[in-house]
Please model this.
Amino acid sequence: MIFYEGMIDIIDHSISKGIEKCNKAFTIFQTLGHQSIYEKYKKDLDQLINKTMSTKA
Model:
């Protein structure tokens, strides 16, 4: 849930605030040993950031 809140923050508010929330989720995934989930969500986050940056430029 916190990951998606972070993604919404990236779109609506602040990229840095959103990344902070997503990083908290990544810490949880890695702590619990969910590497495949971490990798998928990390890829999704990178794509969102790239799209967000290109539309704001």
Q: What stands out?
A: The CA atoms of residues 26 and 41 lie 8 Å apart. The chain has a mean pLDDT of 94.
